[in-house]
């Protein structure tokens, strides 16, 4: 997969060199390039923003540098990338969207700062490529850079060959519409707290049932919206919640 990220703070994306994302890059599973938006300015001050039409606080990113950046990174001759614009006004980013993005050949992230990017940049880009505004949740960040770190981490771990143990992909929280059951390792007793006996029983059938019950109870407590979205429960699932 190819990924381009455009930002006025490319150093903010330095963590992409580390850990498993860094390893995916070193192995060539991920070809990632971070670009400084100011590359596409032409004035001495390398201006990227201006005051908003209609008034109001803050500054808006001017369209010209963005237009040139997108022309350079999504040239008309090549198959168009999917353009992702992190914004608190976007559609909520989910595990389902992570799977969708992991299937793309080329992602292009446009990181806005200040009050956002002039809307015409997105409108014009949409005539050439699919454009999606994405939000991490209902809170406001300074800019899109940290959102790109989050999105790329969730997408990269879904790429074939990135995770050592592919089994951890389908057992994880959100894969089955439930939060994950609690996990334990050695020692069996620690500071007066014991590992649940059933996990040490070797009875895989009962262990699977226990994990589902714990997952259901935890999800009902923390995320009742997710339990409601499961629809009708079978009698064993219903019993776990009684
Ligand atoms: Cl994706 N960007 C910004 N600037 N703020 C956010 C966000 C994204 N998601 C939640 N808050």
The percent of residues in helical segments reads: 25-40%
Question: What string, H for helix and E for strand, traces the elements in order?
Answer: EHEEEHEHEHEHHEEHHH
Ligand catalogue: 6-chloroguanine
Q: What is the overall silhouette? A: elongated
CATH architecture of the largest domain: 3-Layer(aba) Sandwich
N-C termini distance: 46 Å
Which spans have pLDDT < 50 for at least 5 consecutive residues? none
Features:
Trp Operon Repressor, Chain A, two-stranded antiparallel sheet, binds 6-chloroguanine, alpha/beta, elongated, about 240 residues, five-stranded parallel sheet, Alpha/beta knot, 2 domains, single chain
Brief summary of the model shown:
This protein is of the alpha/beta class and 242 residues long. The protein has helices at residues 19-26, 63-73, 95-102, 119-125, 145-156, 167-171, 204-222, 224-229, 235-240, and strands at 2-7, 31-36, 49-50, 60-61, 82-92, 106-110, 131-135, 189-190, 193-194. The chain folds into 2 domains: 2-156, SPOUT methyltransferase, trefoil knot domain (Alpha/beta knot, 3-Layer(aba) Sandwich), CATH 3.40.1280; 173-240, Trp Operon Repressor, Chain A (Orthogonal Bundle).
Task: Write up what this structure looks like.
Strand 1 (2-7), helix 1 and strand 2 form a beta-alpha-beta unit. This protein has helices at 19-26, 63-73, 95-102, 119-125, 145-156, 167-171, 204-222, 224-229, 235-240; strands at residues 2-7, 31-36, 49-50, 60-61, 82-92, 106-110, 131-135, 189-190, 193-194. The chain has 2 domains: 2-156, Alpha/beta knot (3-Layer(aba) Sandwich); 173-240, tRNA(m1g37)methyltransferase, domain 2 (Trp Operon Repressor, Chain A), CATH 1.10.1270.20. It has 242 residues and is of the alpha/beta class. The chain contains 9 helices and 9 strands. The termini are far apart. The longest helix has 19 residues, at 204-222. The mean pLDDT is 95.
């Amino acid at each position: 997969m190819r990924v381009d990220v455009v930002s006025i703070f490319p150093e903010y994306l330095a963590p992409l060199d580390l850990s498993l994302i860094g390893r995916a890059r070193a192995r060539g599973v991920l070809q990632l390039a971070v670009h400084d938006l100011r590359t596409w300015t032409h004035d001495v001050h390398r201006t990227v923003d201006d005051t908003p039409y209609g008034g109001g606080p803050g500054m808006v990113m001017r369209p010209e540098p963005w237009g040139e950046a997108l022309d350079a990174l999504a040239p008309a001759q090549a198959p168009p990338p999917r353009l992702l614009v992190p914004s608190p006004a976007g559609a909520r980013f989910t595990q389902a969207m992570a799977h969708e993005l992991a299937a793309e050949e080329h992602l292009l992230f446009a990181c806005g700062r200040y009050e956002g990017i002039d809307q015409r940049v997105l409108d014009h880009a949409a005539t050439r490529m699919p454009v999606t505004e994405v939000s991490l949740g209902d809170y406001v960040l300074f800019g899109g850079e940290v959102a790109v770190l989050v999105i790329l981490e969730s997408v990269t771990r879904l790429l074939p060959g990135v995770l050592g143990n592919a089994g951890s992909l389908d057992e994880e929280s959100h894969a089955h519409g439930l939060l994950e059951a609690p996990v334990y390792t050695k020692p069996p007793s620690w500071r007066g707290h014991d590992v649940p006996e059933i996990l040490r029983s070797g009875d895989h059938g009962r262990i699977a049932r226990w994990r589902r019950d714990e997952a259901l109870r935890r999800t009902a407590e923390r995320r009742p919206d997710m339990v409601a979205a499961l629809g009708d429960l079978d009698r064993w699932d219903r019993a776990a919640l009684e």
